[in-house]
Structures are given as C-alpha cells and as structure tokens.
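Hey, I'm writing a tutorial for new members on how sequence and structure tokens pair up, and I'd like a real worked example in the thread rather than a made-up one. If someone can provide the structure for the chain below, I'll link this post from the tutorial.
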Amino acid sequence: MAAKEITTIEISIEGKKLIFDKNNDKSKVDFDTGVDDGNENNVRIELGIAKVFHKVLNFIKTDTELFQKQEFELMGEMLSKIIFGKQGDLRAQPMKDTYAFIRAGMVKYCRIILSFDGQSNLANLPWEYVLYKIKNTTETYYLAANNKSCFQIMRRFPANVQPCKHPDQEKLFVILLMNVEGNSNITPVINSMSTEVPDIINMYDTLQKKYPGKLEYKVLDSCSLEEVKEKVEETVTGWKNTYNYEPAYILQYTGHAMLDEQIGKLAIRPKKDEKINWVKDRIFASLFGQDMLDVRQPSMVLFLACDSAKIGDIDHNLRGVAYEFTRINIPAIVGMQNEINTTQSCAFYYVVYESLLQGNDIAEAVTKGRSHLGTDHKDFNEKDLQPIGEPYKNNYFGSPVLFITTDEPVRMIKPPDETEGNLNIQAGAGTTGSQLTQAHSDRAAKTADEVTDNAKREIAKAGDKEKRISRDGEFNK
C-alpha cells in the first residue's frame, strides 16, 4: 500500500508576481490587476467581484436570507480564479496533479497556505469560501470546508514562521476567558451573552463525558484586563503542580469583537471595578507575549467571537484581533471573520476540540469543523444547523479562519501510534515539524514507484477525459 503523504502548496504575492510554491518548487506567474483584461493572467474583474461580495457579506450580519447559496458560489469561484488561475494558467497543472495524487491514494491531504502581507491587498479577503471546480467534471469543493476534498486552507504571514514543536502530552488543557457581560452606555453597545453561557459550558462538559480524563478546562469569568496575566499564570502553575509538568494549553476567548476603523477591538473589563468596554487588539494580545508571561505562552488562541478574524489595513500595516496574536508567535489562532451565532460557534468548536482530542493537528480539526457547519443537519446537541439536503445553505461554514505561525500546523496531544509499515513516530516536546515531515518523506521514498504509477494512471485518465471532451463536445463518463 502506498504511503500517505502530505503535500503543501504555499501561495504568496511578491511585487506583481504570484508565487505558487508546491513542496519548495517555486513558480512565478504574472499577477495582473491592470486594465488589459485580454491577458490570460489578468484577475482585475475577479478581484473586483470578490471585493464587492466581501463588502456585502460584512453588511448582512446574521440575516442569512440576504446572501443566497448562489452568491457564495460565485464569490468562491472568483476567489479560486485569483489564486489558482484561469484556463491556461501555469498554476492549473500543479492543482490538477495534486488532485490526481489524492484520487490515486498517495496523498492523504494537501495543505494550502496563503501568505499575503499588507502590500498584497489580499489579506482581508474571505479565502475560506474558495470554491474549486475540477476541470471537465461536475465536482466542486469548498476547499476549506469539505473533508472529502482532502484540502486544508490556512493563513500564514511570512515574517514570523518558526519550527513547530508538538506538545508531548496526552491531556488537553483549556483556559476559558469568559467576557459575556453587556454595556449599553458605550458605542457600539456591547450586548450581554449571559443567557448563552450554559450552552458554551455544556459543550465542554459533553466533551469531558465523551473523553473521560482527556480534557481539563478552567473558567476565568469576567476577568479584567489587569487581572488576565495573573489569573492565567495561576491556572497554568496549578496544573503544573498537579501533573508535575507545565502543560501546553489553549486560551479560548468568549465574548464580542469587531473591526473599528481598521483596528481590531474586543470586549473585556479594562479594570476590575469598571464595566466591560472595547479594548484594542494590540493591548489585549500584548498580555500573552513571551516576555510578559511568567509561564509558557498559549499554544493556541481560539475566539468564540464574531468578527475576531477580520483583518484591517492601515497604510499596508495589518491589524485585527486574531491577527495580532500572529505577531507574538502563537502557533495557531482561530477566529471568525463575520457574524456567527453561538449555536453555530459551539457546533464548530465542539468538532474542533473533538478532533484535537483524537490527536489531529489544528488544520485538520478546523477543516472538520467548517465541513460540519456546511454539510451536517444537526449539532452535538441535536440542534438544527441547516435544512436536510441543503449543504452550504448559509455563510457560517466560511466564517472560521485559521492563522498559523509555524512550518506546519500544531497539534495539542500525542496521536495514536502510527503502525503503517515501519513508520512509528511519537512527536514529543523536542520533535519539530520538519523532523516529522522528514520521517514521512523517508517512508514515502520506499514506495515511490508504486505512488508514481498510481498518479500516472489518474493523470492519464484525466487526459483521456479531456480528449473525449474535445472530440465529442461533452463529458463522456
């Protein structure tokens, strides 16, 4: 049996060139946004349509009826053409090959890492809605939100990529920072989320029952900005004293966030005796810098908050609640890029946590969570997500955004032993992403002939289909 490999495609902008980097094999193609629409690489129209849809998406809030399924599909197609190219583009072949490798069974999944800085004018677009169409077939996939596609979309900023060190532990630790109070005396008003707390806590309690002894969480309720550092340090130190090691942990913020004049803000009490208020993104993120905490930084920061993943741009300098945590090198950050209700958020995070508890990395976990929002009818509490038989009915599936700052996505606990062939790796505290990838590569090399033959057969099939289309004018199954 062919070894399961991981393929990585990194897409970035360098000047007026788009870098399409597949497994360190870089190709550069023109990224033309000028007025010459005749240029096959010109994406001015596609980029314009995507930006218009993005603006509409920001204004519709939670009224899902104002943005129909066909609108999401059109926006997704435009986003796909921007980064994967149009017909005849050099980028089309690597994507076609990757799809063939997946169909052949030699590639487990493909990570697509988008690295767009402030100069690119692309960082704030909703890439999680990319809709990829398989040429000459009826197959289409929301790549970020469909497990069957075997693709994973994440974002990374090129200035702070670091080696990934996977925690060597078998238990998941979560600090739940709850900021659910309301304040009607400020602008914008902060609405109370107090009635939604039981549903949020129930998510963690349900996971604890399903995975006994595997999850421990600590609630920091209405913790003020000036108390956060001390409370986090107390919690982590308490775990260290109990378990005789300092655990890697997740910080989960629950509350409200927004992008105000291109600056991210979130709701928290500035001081213990003050009411909840809006605090700027950099002020909050700075509390968790490596030089600020007397314990280790969070390995992940997750936001159960609308608009927490929105990205602002001030003179080509990016801002945003979730984005600011990439600047302090948190390995993984997840936020929401538009409005999403608590039911959908809990449904998403339940699947994310469940996947993490099974030893999967955060990219796989987030992809499963998005897919759950897009395709499933019920959540873990049997609450309705969308009508039966109407997948991707609303915009929720594309709301979660994953940012990483490492060479590969981090996982929180050790996975089950890998038993295929001679590959048996336990990635401990000192195991880097590059070491783990090398081990997979060594195993894969032993089956290269079989892998190549399978891939060639799939590519040949695709070529035969194209010939039939050219001859007959339609797809002959």
